[in-house]
Amino acid sequence: MKLRSTQESAAYLDSLGIPGASAFRLKQLRTEGGGPEYRKCGRFVRYEQEALDAWAASRLSEPRRSTSEAVRSFAAAE
Question: What does the alpha-carbon distance between residue 65 and residue 16 come to, in Å, rounded to a whole number?
């Protein structure tokens, strides 16, 4: 199990191309909710790489071939 600090996690998410995942934002998400799962080791926060990968994947849309696909998907859902 690979554990990462908040700074390391932010750098890892940035390397994956996930926008807006700064260390500050991860701290906010721990309070607000909606961020990746984390663990505490004493007073230290640690993220598992698997949790970071799952959270990053949850923020991505399905693959698209054109911008009009999003409109069709939305219209079909109504």
Answer: 21
pLDDT tens, position by position, 17-47: 998 889 999 999 999 999 999 999 999 999 9
CB 6 within 8 Å of CB 51 = no
User: What is d(CA 66, CA 46) in angstroms, rounded to the nearest whole number?
Assistant: 38
CA-based angle 57:60:62, to the nearest 5? 110
Distance (Å, rounded) from C-alpha 70 to C-alpha 78? 13
Q: List, in order, residues 6 or more apart from 2 with CB less than 8 Å away.
A: 48, 49
Kindly report the pTM of this predicted structure: 0.78
**Position of tokens 């909606």?**
34
